[in-house]
Amino acid sequence: MTDLDPEEFRRLGYAVVDWIAGYRAGVGDLPVRPAVEPGWVRSQLPDTLPEAPRELGALLGELDRVVVPATTHWQHPGFFGYFPANASLHSVLGDLLSGGLGVQGMLWSTSPAATEVEQVLLDGLADALGLGPAFTWAGGGGGTIADSASSAALVALLAALHRTSGGAWRESGVDGTERVYVTAETHSSLAKAVRVAGLGARALRVVPPSPGSLAMSADALAEMLAADVAAGLRPVLVCATVGTTGTGAVDPVAAITAVTAPHRVWVHVDAAWAGVAALCPEHRDLLDGVEHVDSFCTDAHKWLMTAFDASLLWVRDAAALPDALSITPEYLRNSATDSGAVVDYRDWQVPLGRRFRALKLWTVIHGFGLEGLRAHLRGHVALAAELASWIEAEPGFVLAVPRSLSLVCFRLDTGDPDADDRATRALLERVNASGTALLTHTVVDGRHVVRVAIGSVATEREHVVALWDRLRGAAPGS
Amino acid sequence: MTDLDPEEFRRLGYAVVDWIAGYRAGVGDLPVRPAVEPGWVRSQLPDTLPEAPRELGALLGELDRVVVPATTHWQHPGFFGYFPANASLHSVLGDLLSGGLGVQGMLWSTSPAATEVEQVLLDGLADALGLGPAFTWAGGGGGTIADSASSAALVALLAALHRTSGGAWRESGVDGTERVYVTAETHSSLAKAVRVAGLGARALRVVPPSPGSLAMSADALAEMLAADVAAGLRPVLVCATVGTTGTGAVDPVAAITAVTAPHRVWVHVDAAWAGVAALCPEHRDLLDGVEHVDSFCTDAHKWLMTAFDASLLWVRDAAALPDALSITPEYLRNSATDSGAVVDYRDWQVPLGRRFRALKLWTVIHGFGLEGLRAHLRGHVALAAELASWIEAEPGFVLAVPRSLSLVCFRLDTGDPDADDRATRALLERVNASGTALLTHTVVDGRHVVRVAIGSVATEREHVVALWDRLRGAAPGS
Predict the structure, then answer these.
(1) Over the stretch A35-84, which tens digit does the pLDDT of each residue have?
(2) Looking at the structure, do residues A350 and A370 belong to the same domain, yes or no?
(3) Which superkingdom heads the taxonomic lineage of this protein's source (chains A, B) (predicted)?
(4) Looking at the structure, do residues A151 and A54 belong to the same domain, yes or no?
(5) Interface ipTM above 0.95
(6) Are B350 and A154 an interchain contact pair (Cβ–Cβ within 8 Å)?
């Protein structure tokens, strides 16, 4: 029993391409959120696996019958939930090439091109984002593609634990004195990384925001660092977020690095969603101060047209992650590694194996060009600015926080907080139930808030106009 | 600047499918290992990223010019290195469908089908592998697709830390008394997981092998557990390996669970490579005792026709991973999760985001059927048995350890250990330099050993015959 021969693959590959073309052409007509109960999909599929092979067409039929009706359509033009998960068709082609090559990029020697294409692209993006030469290979740093910002934050924390322990961490582990600094708005992946790393929730320091904002107060951070050091504790990592998940708040990176400078603490910038906007010079100020941080992460798989997973992580010190993470059993030894002339990306991540993820990033950059990517970002920022202006002008609606790039957070406001919260929840549920758009929520200062995260690949002005018409129409009193 | 329209995607998608068909049809004629120096790929690519979009054809040209000549061809029929990385064309089609749908499966509610298809397939495979009902959802356990066996081992360890701490771990972290039990042959990912989890290398207990073998001695484990408990230490996890990376050794799972039973220690089975062989009843004995362990991992992306990444992890207690890993910020709250009726796979892994990996597993099972997968496994086991018989019959060659499934480990043997080690190294390098096959090595009892890991998708009898002809021809004295 062997694999498809190349001619069969050609025939079936065309059929899958056709299926995807059809799905993407029609996705805007589907309800964004499926109307299925838990267990429905399982109830539709056989309990046992087939003994004999079956034709691909039968499986495509199952996708139409069971999977599509039970899918939340992240590529729908009316998807405004969470953050966008851009899976552009350009990137899908790159990922397909990666599957076709089928290489393991764990070591340079297990596929030199997989490693070096990634290095070249990350160098180019460091330049295009304005990160500065310190994060390029020539500057002593370097970039990698992680699966997610969660994993990027974890490895940054591990490198920080190693560095701040004077090297004891690899042998002795953590000692309970480590402290990690976040805000209440920092992504939960930081708390998860702290937990995974064995520090426990007690190691998390929640730095208060500057008055009137949701962004970290550098002054408060300075006080907490000093107090912790005085108490014999060890500041390990400060996470500055550029574009929080809830509301798009931006921690002041430059001010933070100014107060962390006297300490050995590692500064990580989590710009998972917003960081890619720095491709546009008019948004470059988001990254003010980034030249002083230790690591910087932004996700190509959110708003940069690249299918999950492609989280871009740069570190200032190319030795930091291998120093923390490398373990070399005999069966992985090879002359290229021993020479010291190559990067083995397995030492930049927790898993050993890795896909050739750089290919999908390459097809995106190649297919859109930097100017195309900037146009994509700018288009959504402009749409968000329009939506925010409509909200501001509409009686009974209020922006919960200032618009952040393409994220608009609003709530209903008639002066009765409890009634407004109920109405805001109901409004969100009515729009989601309509199937034309999907929105998610957060809570700001105890108030229920609707998030409109503009940025799906297919989202155009007409979809934002339709969303606003529906929001106005579904609001109480309309 | 928008994405490809569906018709353009159709045209370009066909072109990529054609490129892959051509690559796979011709890969056997390429040298398995590229003849490139570090830096060559980088030297061939521009330093800066393109401003304007370019045609896909130009990028396919770059793949031919730069990537293919600098690639280690894991899908080559002469690839016998490390372990196979089966990226069957069936699985490539499934991964393409996943990219086309472009969903985020972090929560049930963010794509119900992505979660439930995974549940159905993992239940079916638990049955097909003979894991027993305890690992199915109906039995109180459940399975998930992790990116790698490394990540699976890490989350198993985190669940074990949580459980054995009586729940203190999430708040207080590790306390330095934790101990993890492996052998010298256990995969390095366990040592890495121990490091990541903050335990430090001192927490690793290396259990000696049974006399005359490379497999864990259950008696020695029992003594170490008792001594550690008596010393006030806390046994957290025992890793039993079914099919070690170096030589395919099999730790005695049933005997291990017998001696761990009096303790609360978590038993994890790492059967990354060999576990899938249990699809064949004649290899089911590899898993004797698995019904008593806490977690079991085997990789579909090694020898089960599925493109990386698809590591299958089952746990006996479906609550164990969420209990250890769940953190729910406001923006991830949803009614389905609150109902308790669904599985949110983000709580089964470190990253938040996840791809719809089950699709590629589905296309594999659908396209080959279980009988096709068994034929694939059996064919390679039979080829390895033939090769081992030829080695045993050949003067100057000796098996370093008994053949394990489709893994054959041998060395040259003329009675002069130093000369034999040099000759074995030279033999491996001559074969690899020929470009017709790729082999990797390990060390057993201080002796240099060549590993022949049969199992690539395209490997047929003729390729093993050719390898053996070359090995005999390249050996000293031939």
Answers:
(1) 999 999 999 999 999 999 999 999 999 999 999 999 999 999 999 999 99
(2) no
(3) Bacteria
(4) no
(5) yes
(6) yes
